[in-house]
Design a protein that fits this description.
- The complex is a heterodimer of chains A (about 260) and B (about 260).
- By secondary structure, chain A is of the alpha/beta class.
- Chain A has 2 domains: about 180 residues, P-loop containing nucleotide triphosphate hydrolases (Rossmann fold); about 70 residues, no CATH class.
- Chain A has 7 helices and 9 strands; from the N terminus they run βββαββαααβαβαββα.
- Chain A has a 6-stranded mixed β-sheet with strand order 5-6-7-3-8-9, sandwiched between helices. A 3-stranded antiparallel β-sheet of chain A has the order 2-1-4.
- In chain A, helix 3 packs across helix 4 and helix 6 crosses helix 7.
- The N and C termini of chain A lie far apart (about 45 Å).
- Chain B is an all-alpha fold.
- Chain B has one domain: MetI-like (MetI-like fold).
- Helices cover about 75% and strands about 0% of the residues of chain B.
- The chains are: A alpha/beta (about 260), B mainly alpha (about 260).
- Chains A and B meet through strand 5 of A and helix 7 and helix 8 of B.
Amino acid sequence: MPPLLRSPTLDLRARNIHHQYGETEVLRDISLDFPSGRIVCIVGPSGCGKSTLLRLLGGLEKPTAGEVLQLGAPPAGCLNPLTYIFQDFALLPWRTVEGNVSLVLEDHGLGAAERAQIIADVLVRTKLSEFRAALPKQLSGGMKQRVAIARALAVNPAVMLMDEPLSALDAQTRELLMDDLVGLWTRAPFTAVYVTHNLAEAVRLGHQIVVLSRRPGQVRDVVEIDLPLAERAHGDAMLERQQQHLWGLMRDEAAAADAELLHV
Amino acid sequence: MSERVTFRGGGFTPERRRGVGLVVFVLLIAMAEWGTRTGWITSLTLPRPSDVALTFGELYQSGQLFNHLVPSLTRLVVGAALGATAGITVGVLIGLFSLVRAGLVPLVAAIFPIPKIALLPLFVIWFGIDEASKYALIAFGTFTPTVVATYGAVDNVDRTLIRMGQSFGLSWRSIVWKIVLPGAMPGILSGLRISLTIAIILLVAAEMLGAEYGIGAYILNAGSLYDLERLFAGVVILSVLGVIVSYGIGMVEKRLLRWRV
């Protein structure tokens, strides 16, 4: 299943990252590679710094020590190499679906026709064409996140940085959106770093799953799953086993992290 | 044995009740009219509403109404526009730049509680006895509440939206114009509701000095003669102005803030 790589490609590399907030050490010595064309999931107990790591990767925060490197060049036509998808969608409530996608294209000196064409294209890919004129307040949570995905696709990113993108949604919507993401990836493989606390999402979407320890977050284990995304069905026995294995790794850490908060 | 569960939810949500406001007005006026007619309220205490209406009719027919209204409205519009524009500009700058905030917030806090009427002589010295000093007084009075409301509104803009803008590489200009300003709009408009009302209050103060025509001059003139009918006719005009301003802002909110949940 060699993913169809667009060339040139861009890999992301985190090198010896340390991070602290004041006295609190959040991340310790994180070194990871995020190869292009693959989805890397980061899981870990709550408060382990996985969302912080994602913000460091995309340059929204500066690591206390260490560095994040981009290796290679972004693909042609890429407007924003490192593009986020946020847990709370971060849509502008005063702009329509179309307007929200248009927002991220307006600063790039594209012609109106070119913009309209990109918008139409990403709305088709996310099945939102008929809602182009709707305001966010009219949309369900799942649709809002699809708008955010459309917005991310519009800038043709080299790496998608996804911060618990499905955590604000209900279980059924989550299943549907996971199918959508698998479909999008299968049609045009993208590179993604996907932070989640949901192990089912991780085994469903990750080619590689990085397990972080509790705070300070360190890489505890890296699990590879070779089964192609499109063949991973809900309730697959192999995935169940992987999920059990991951839970075994995390269980004690999660319990310890949970107890820790009580006497902070 | 069965008992129906009694309903105990509901309430605590504002509902639209048409016409109730009008009924309250009408009732109060009817009471005053009835009281003054029966002698329960002496005409020294409160003028008879019908007499006030008559005075207002005369004012309208003699053409004096517009002689008073036009200069007052001009002062109000020019003064409030200057004050609100400056207020929104300074408020946004305070919201965006920490240096401006550190420098100007204490100053605004110091200016805010000064009764602007007390500074009237100062304005006359600075801007002369003509229109300029009146504009300045109204503008100054509108300025401070607008500044405070505006920087509060900018502070309240959802930071995750700003981070989103940065993460997509939007320019600083775009972030300000497309995220910060629209996000601050609800707060700015509710601030304007207050500061424009203050502008109407200050209109009367501004016309205390050297104004021959104007609603404020008319009221003060009537007041000094204890001509309660004329005084009330003037006051009614101010109230109507207040209602119109509030309605106008309501319309603007409806148009600009359609996106609000």
